[in-house]
Design goal:
The protein has one domain. Helix 7 packs antiparallel against helix 14. The longest helix is centred in the middle third of the chain and has 28 residues. The radius of gyration is 20 Å and the shape is globular. The protein has 14 helices and no strands. It is mainly alpha-helical. About 75% of the residues lie in helices and about 0% in strands.
Length: about 325
């Protein structure tokens, strides 16, 4: 099987355990504190791997590259992930996770316009099946959702798709690990500035009085204990650092649309992990949605798998 598909599967597995880990520490940390910590720690963890990748590619970073990575970190971490946390406040986290998994719909369109990647018929059919699966899981006829929360979730999804497509342009030059590391560090630095800014008395008072308590007086070091530390290490290093590194490695080996299969597979894997680890029940509509998503993912992957099978085998392989 094509190496890029292994990266896609590995990324999907890692990303699918994120909600489980976050649930274990959800009551101990401020949501934006968590976002800042996991992306900064993930970026620091990836520095040795990024340096090795730069040496292998005989490439180097300079000050001219900084604005691009600052923009990437701002779009992916500061905007997308912060708005994601706002949507979780308005809509159940499980619903937001499913909505966020519609990222491929945006990625395919953005990749067509920004990267000139073609959209094939099987991808269109897969997207339609994915939409059907997401709607089945949300079950819109029997759930009352905040329109504002849904809008925030979709804006976050769109911004993350922009982040992914923008990142692919730099992957060709620097490599996926370098792009992940640099965007994480830049996004973490920008979020640190935002956190410190939120703690200024005048700013804190204005945010609290404007109904933006989520962004007022954001803590930095509260919530840590021997019970939360292992989960935080998993969230920062495995779910964030390794997860996004594999995500961009998949983009190097495949296309933006194919890599977006990660978000097709996540709604399938996450409920399964939640069932076995947390004991959460998989409802009938969740099962129906999973079936649609599996068929859609298979439909999108099938042409690539057939192409690999038709490649001539080298002697000794």
């Amino acid at each position: 099987m094509k190496r890029g598909y292994w990266y896609i599967i590995l990324t999907a597995v890692i990303f699918s355990t994120m909600e489980i880990a976050l649930k274990e520490v959800s009551g101990s940390f401020h949501p934006l504190q968590m976002t800042f910590t996991r992306f900064l720690a993930g970026g620091l963890f990836l520095i040795p791997f990024a340096v090795r990748t730069l040496k292998k590619k005989k490439a180097s970073l300079n000050w001219k590259d900084l604005p691009g990575f600052l923009l990437l970190g701002f779009v992916g971490m500061v905007l997308s992930m912060s708005i994601y946390q706002m949507s979780v406040k308005e809509v159940p986290a499980s619903v937001v996770a499913v909505l966020f998994s519609s990222n491929p719909i945006f990625t395919a369109v953005l990749a067509f316009f920004m990267l000139k990647e073609p959209i094939r018929r099987n991808q269109i059919a897969a997207l339609l099946l994915e939409i059907g699966g997401i709607l089945a899981i949300i079950n819109p006829f029997h759930i009352s959702l905040s329109p504002y929360g849904v809008l925030l979730a979709m804006i976050s999804t769109l911004l993350f798709a922009v982040y992914g497509v923008m990142g692919k342009r730099r992957c060709a030059r620097f490599g996926g690990v370098v792009v992940t590391c640099a965007s994480f560090l830049c996004g973490g630095a920008e979020m640190l500035f935002m956190i410190l800014f939120s703690r200024l008395p005048m700013v804190n008072k204005w945010l609290a009085g404007s109904g933006l308590e989520l962004f007022a007086n954001i803590p930095l070091l509260s919530g840590y204990s021997w019970n939360t530390l292992p989960w935080m290490l998993m969230i920062c290093i495995v779910n964030t650092g390794l997860g996004f590194a594999c995500y961009f490695k998949a983009m190097e080996e495949t296309s933006a649309q194919e890599t977006s299969l990660v978000f097709f597979l996540k709604p399938v894997l996450a409920p399964v992990f939640a069932f076995f680890i947390l004991g959460e029940v998989i409802s009938w509509n969740m099962g129906l949605g999973i079936a649609f998503i599996l068929i859609g993912s298979l439909l999108a992957l099938l042409p690539g798998l057939r192409a690999v099978q038709k490649l001539p085998k080298t002697p000794g392989a």
